[in-house]
Amino acid sequence: MSAPVFLAAPGALFALAPGDTYVLDGDEGRHAGVVQRRGAGERIDVVDGAGLRLETVVAAVDAGRLELTVTATRTEAPDGVELVLVQALAKGDRDELAIEAATEVGVDAVQPWQAERSVVVWRGDRAAKSRARWVTTVRAATKQARRASLPAVGQVIDGKGLAATVAEVHAAGGLTVVLHEDAELPLAGLDLPAAGGAGAPVRRVLIVVGPEGGISDREVAALTDAGAVLARLGPHVLRTSTAGPIAIALLSQRLGRWG
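C-alpha cells predicted for Ribosomal RNA small subunit methyltransferase E (259 residues):
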C-alpha cells in the first residue's frame, strides 16, 4: 500500500537527503499526528507540490509535531506537456467535483471560467472565497491521489480573457480543445503537441468544458477564431462535472503517463 502524502512549503525539501531529519508541523503535522494518529515506525511521504517527494519513516511524534527520518528522495519530472482544465463555473458543487476528479487523474492546472451561461457568478468577496474552495479541493485531491505535484488554480477569467489565453497557447505551439457535443472530430483523433527536449518550453493543452447550459455559439466562434478546435468525447452528452476528468484521463493515457 502506498504511503499517505503530506504537503510541505515550497522549497522546504530541496536540501534534504537520506538520513536527514525533517520536522512536519503546522496544519499538516496536526493532521498527521492528531487526526490520523500516525506513530513511530510508520512510513509517510512528504511532497513539495513541485514534483519532489521525500520517503520517510516517523521517528517521534509529539502531538502535532512529527520528526521524520528521510529514507529516499525522488523527483517526478514533468513530461513537457501541461494539461489544463478550463472549467466553467457551475451551480451546486459540480465545478468542484470536476476539478477534484481531474486532479486525481493527473491534471496539471485548473482555470475557472465565467462562461456566458454560468448560473454561478464569481464577483468581489465571493470570487476570493470560491477560488479558495477550489484551492482547498485541489490540495485535498492531490494528497488523496498521492501526487507529488500540486495543480495550480488560476484566477477566474471571462470569455474575453479565455480567448486571449487560447491565442497565446496557439502562438506558443500548444493546443486548445473545446469539448462540444456537435463536434465531428473525436478527442482520440487530435494531434497532441510534442514535448520538447530538456530546456524546451512547456506545451500547454487546454481542455475547455462549458457549464450546464453548454457553450454559446458566440463563445465557440470566439475560441475557434483564437485557434481552438472542437472535439467530442463520445456518443453521449456528459455533465460538466464529468467531461473534464474523462478528457484528462484519456489524454494522460495518450501521453504515456499511465503506462
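The first helix runs from residue 26 to 35.
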